[in-house]
């Protein structure tokens, strides 16, 4: 390896055109995967900028921009001209892979194997031209954008950030056009919506204005920061905590309370789903984030909460007691909490990965039992339990998503408060100690049994609460609603947000639950996204998007230690040679 | 002093755990006696169950070897191994279909099946090697939960990538004429296909055992499993050995995929998940990290799962006992990890290193 980098004409990092070709090939394969998996196709119909560029095309081109950008970063010790050249090579190679596919697919029928390799896809990729011309255009476009990406990454830091912000703003707002249109369509903002949004995506003028505006805002940020700094500093002083939280409450609370009426019915439903996942996320955050017990059977408690509620409230259930929702709710939470302890006891002595698999087994056992013929007389087997009534609050039936939102909001706030108070309490610190090292924690006098069971029970209770609300929201429950995917979903959102981080749960739920529901075409790719998100987060950003303060410190320390170790090893090997 | 919620750590957990154990034992013994006394199934039916279980178990055993090999070397549960198993048979399906359409499959069944198996093994191996390179290698020094979460993510990614690429429809493997029908051995009628699956799996298991015991690479694998740093000092390229370990495990999974496809015919993107978890159960049952253990565990689980539901539940008048097949396997996993986390042949890994 070392000899080849000496022989080439280029410079110190030894980044050569070969590296660029390799990077281009990898990017090409990734892009081809995105194409064949159907993402470009699915998004082909939605526009980012009306009649200019569709979401599918944006996705394709962004791959070459990202490729160029990363190349630019890897060649940062060379002149920008070289970076641009390498960016061009990466882009051209990426384009060549897609171009080759295009040629191949237009001569051989790949549809039998790759279901998305349809004629529409080919037209989309070749811009409606014949394959050869289309492929040529594609390669050139990819090359140009690769070079642009490389140049963006090599421009001055402030300019670079501003450009990236501008591009991202346009893309994100374009993607969320549906949702924002609904949001802005009421009241005085209507003309703004009319200016920005076309029938699908942004208008051209809107896109330009948005780009200029967001780029300008980012450029002005250092100045803005300087002007607001005194106010922030004033608020950050120790005695001003009540003022700070008071201000936050005054701003946030009315917003939270009016949200379902601003969003209207369909979006409120989405909001409710996000809320339920936040509630479960907060619960699992205690188990996984605080106590470090990787629980993959978390859905079991959700199911137990839902089934308890359904059994107690529905007139069509086996019990037929017809309790009200409010009477059933505490019992559902209690049942879930008890189940948490019961399932917790056997796994007390297990660690890490074994715990994960066993809890996964538990979750599946609960689902299979709910589904089985054996328990059908009691809990309905695969037909589930129907006729779960809606909650009634002082004579008002909380009949749809807009009303139920408040129940979910209250639940989330309670869970948030409990988690927040627990996090720095004696219990919370015991959990964290246990997470870091069980043996040391035990030696420090922490009763592992007690604290583990407490974590399981608390987490399970929140999940039970979510289950109870879920049952009465849907009005009927089926075993199929309680599969492993829910556990994975909740786990993913915690990890994306940041383990043990409370704001992280909200961020994670918005990204992983809210976003796919806003992009309805995307829902099919949800699980693909979860899987990719889990892997990518672990590889690139294990602390999550909104890391807990303590976790951030730890990871930094770990990374430094690893770097030091590597350095030491490098020294050892070089001396050995 | 802090007040304690529970009197003592040992007592309560043990009582609950043993309570659960005794309860399950009671159901199992009571159910079996009731079933046998009522004579619900004729002895020949039990034998059929047994042989089917053996065939199914040999597939589990082959997959379980992949878990055990990787665990032995990296102390990591490769959660995506079930998807590695699925991917091989999924791609090989397209070859099988093409061979079937051209008539090659029934004209030259042995050659065709060998090619299909090779394709499956190659695909599984490539996927496992890429997976190791992209997802696991950068995390080798990370805390233990990190690679596990990555593996879970990879598992879901692979499943849904296949769904996206090849569509959600179930694919049905073509029939092979020479594998139809049955043979009569000592007056017992056995389906040909089951015999072939069992024999093929046995040959591969023996092959693996010889490979690990007697080849240079196998010896290197054992050395790395014993102590990575010491192995590196002895001049073993640890990274290469780890890749080979993944590759060998995946090749066996790829072969298992074809056997599974011959037995059950149907392939979807989710087909690897349940066998994956069951094979993991088998690996734990035999003692994870232990190669003969995984083989034994797989065969045992296969038979247990095939006989179990009918034996335990039929006599208790529980309807549709076979629905609870998977539940039995999971319960078994939980029980083994509670009562004998070392497995049948393993050392105490579950508590120490896990």
Oligomer: heterodimer
Distance between the termini of chain B: 33 Å
Biggest β-sheet description of chain B = 2 strands, antiparallel
Question: In DSSP terms, counting alpha (H) and pi (I) runs of 4 or more, how many helices of chain B?
Answer: 14
Radius of gyration of chain A using CA atoms only: 27 Å
Summarize the main sheet of chain A: 2 strands, antiparallel
Q: Roughly how much helix do the residues of chain B carry, as a percent range? A: over 70%
Based on the structure given, which CATH architecture of the largest domain in chain A is correct?
Orthogonal Bundle
List the strand order in the largest sheet of chain A. Answer: 1-2
Write down the overall mean pLDDT of chain B: 83
Low-confidence stretches of chain B: 1-9, 348-354
Q: What gross morphology of chain A would you assign?
A: globular
Structure description:
The complex is a heterodimer of chains A (577) and B (354). With 577 residues, chain A is mostly helical. Chain A has helices at residues 2-7, 17-36, 39-42, 55-74, 80-107, 119-125, 131-154, 157-175, 177-184, 190-196, 204-219, 221-236, 241-290, 299-313, 325-347, 352-371, 376-379, 401-423, 426-436, 438-443, 448-474, 484-497, 502-518, 526-540, 549-576, and strands at residues 47-49, 53-54, 392-393, 396-397. Chain A folds into two domains: 11-226, no CATH class; 256-561, ABC transporter involved in vitamin B12 uptake, BtuC, CATH 1.10.3470. The longest helix of chain A has 50 residues, at 241-290. Chain B is mainly alpha-helical. Chain B has a domain at 55-272. Chain B is 74% helix and 3% strand. Chain B contains 14 helices and four strands. A two-stranded antiparallel ribbon of chain B has the order 1-4. In chain B, helix 2 (43-74) crosses helix 11 (273-286), helix 2 packs antiparallel against helix 12 and helix 7 (192-214) packs across helix 8 (216-226). The model of chain B is unreliable at 1-9 and 348-354 (pLDDT under 50). Chains A and B meet through helix 15, helix 16, helix 21, helix 22 and helix 24 of A and helix 1, helix 6, helix 11 and helix 13 of B.
């Amino acid at each position: 390896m070392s000899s080849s980098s000496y022989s080439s004409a280029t410079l110190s990092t030894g980044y050569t055109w070969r590296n660029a070709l390799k990077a281009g090939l990898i990017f090409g394969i990734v892009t081809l995967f995105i194409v064949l998996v159907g993402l470009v196709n699915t998004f082909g119909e939605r526009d980012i900028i009306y009649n200019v560029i569709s979401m599918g095309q944006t996705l394709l081109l962004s791959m070459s921009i990202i490729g160029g950008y990363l190349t630019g970063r890897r060649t940062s010790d060379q002149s920008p001209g070289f970076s641009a050249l390498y960016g061009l090579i990466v882009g051209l190679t990426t384009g060549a892979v897609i171009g080759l596919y295009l040629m191949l697919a237009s001569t051989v029928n790949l549809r039998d194997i790759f279901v998305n390799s349809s004629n529409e896809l080919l037209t989309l990729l070749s811009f409606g031209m014949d394959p050869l011309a289309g492929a040529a255009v594609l390669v050139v476009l990819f090359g140009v954008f690769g070079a642009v990406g490389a140049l963006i990454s090599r421009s001055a830091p402030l300019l670079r950030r501003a450009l990236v912000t501008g591009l991202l703003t346009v893309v994100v707002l374009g993607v969320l056009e549906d949702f924002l249109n609904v949001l802005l369509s009421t009241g005085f903002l209507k003309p703004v919506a009319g200016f920005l949004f076309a029938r699908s995506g942004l208008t051209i003028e809107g896109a330009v204005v948005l780009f200029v505006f967001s780029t300008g805002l980012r450029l002005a940020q250092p100045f803005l920061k300087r002007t607001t700094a005194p106010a922030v500093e004033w608020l950050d002083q120790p005695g001003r905590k009540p003022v700070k939280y008071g201000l936050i409450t005054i701003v946030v609370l009315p917003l939270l309370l009016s949200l379902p009426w601003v969003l209207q019915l369909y979006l409120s439903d989405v909001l409710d789903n996000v809320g339920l996942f936040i509630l479960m996320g907060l619960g699992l955050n205690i188990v996984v984030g605080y106590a470090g017990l990787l629980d993959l059977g978390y859905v079991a408690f959700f199911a137990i909460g839902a089934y308890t509620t359904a059994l107690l409230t529905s007139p069509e259930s086996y019990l037929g007691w017809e309790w009200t929702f409010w009477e059933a709710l505490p019992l559902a939470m209690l049942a879930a909490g008890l189940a948490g302890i019961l399932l917790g006891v056997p796994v007390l002595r297990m660690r890490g990965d074994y715990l994960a698999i066993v809890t996964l087994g538990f979750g599946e056992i609960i689902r299979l039992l709910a589904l089985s013929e054996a328990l059908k007389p009691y809990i309905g087997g695969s037909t589930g339990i129907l006729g779960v009534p809606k909650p009634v609050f002082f004579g008002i039936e909380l009949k749809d998503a807009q009303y139920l939102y408040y129940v979910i909001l209250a639940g989330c706030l309670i869970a948030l408060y409990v988690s927040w108070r627990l996090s720095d309490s004696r219990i919370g610190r015991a959990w964290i100690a246990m997470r870091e090292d069980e043996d040391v924690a035990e030696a420090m006098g922490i009763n592992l049994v007690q604290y583990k069971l407490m974590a399981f029970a608390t987490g399970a209770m929140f999940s039970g609460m979510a289950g109870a609300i879920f049952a009465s929201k849907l009005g009927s429950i089926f075993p199929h609603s309680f599969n492993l995917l829910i556990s994975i979903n909740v786990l993913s959102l915690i990890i994306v947000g940041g383990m043990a981080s409370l704001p992280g749960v909200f961020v994670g739920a918005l990204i992983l639950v809210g976003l796919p529901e806003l992009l309805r075409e995307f829902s099919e790719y949800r699980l693909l996204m979860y899987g990719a998100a889990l892997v990518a987060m672990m590889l690139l950003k294990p602390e999550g998007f909104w890391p807990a303060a303590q976790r951030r410190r730890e990871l930094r320390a770990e990374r430094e230690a690893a770097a030091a170790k590597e350095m030491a090893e490098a020294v050892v090997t070089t001396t050995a040679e | 002093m802090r007040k304690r919620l529970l009197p003592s750590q040992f007592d309560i957990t043990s009582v609950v755990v043993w309570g659960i154990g005794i309860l399950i034992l009671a159901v199992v013994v009571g159910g079996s006696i009731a079933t046998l006394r009522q004579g619900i199934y004729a002895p020949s039916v039990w034998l059929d169950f047994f042989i089917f279980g053996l065939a199914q178990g040999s597939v589990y055993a082959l997959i379980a070897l992949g878990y055990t090999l990787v665990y032995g070397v990296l102390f990591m549960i490769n959660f995506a191994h079930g998807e590695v198993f699925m991917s091989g048979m999924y791609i090989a399906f397209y070859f099988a279909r093409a061979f079937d359409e051209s008539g090659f499959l029934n004209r030259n069944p042995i050659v065709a099946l060998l090619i299909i198996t090779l394709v499956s093994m190659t695909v599984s191996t490539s996927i496992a090697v890429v997976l190791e390179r992209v997802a696991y290698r950068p995390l080798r020094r990370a805390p233990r939960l990190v690679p596990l979460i990555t593996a879970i993510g990879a598992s879901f990614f692979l499943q849904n990538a296949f769904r996206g690429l090849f569509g959600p429809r179930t694919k049905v493997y073509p029939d092979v004429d020479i594998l139809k029908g049955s043979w009569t051995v000592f007056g017992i009628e056995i389906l040909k296909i089951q015999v072939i699956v069992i024999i093929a799996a046995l040959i591969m298991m023996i092959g693996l055992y010889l490979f690990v015991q007697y080849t240079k690479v196998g010896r290197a694998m054992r050395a790395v499993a014993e102590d990575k740093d010491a192995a590196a000092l002895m001049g073993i390229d640890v990274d290469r050995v780890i890749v080979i370990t993944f590759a060998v495990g995946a090749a066996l999974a790829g072969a298992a995929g074809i056997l599974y496809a011959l037995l059950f015919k149907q392939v979807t993107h989710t087909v690897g998940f349940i066998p994956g978890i069951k094979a993991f159960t088998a690996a734990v049952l035999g003692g994870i990290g232990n190669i003969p253990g995984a083989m034994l565990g797989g065969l045992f689980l296969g038979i247990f799962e095939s006989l179990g539901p009918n034996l335990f539940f039929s006599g208790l008048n529980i309807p549709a006992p076979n629905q609870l097949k998977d539940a039995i396997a999971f319960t078994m996993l939980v029980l083994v990890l509670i009562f004998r986390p070392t497995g049948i042949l393993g050392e105490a890994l579950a508590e120490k290193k896990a």
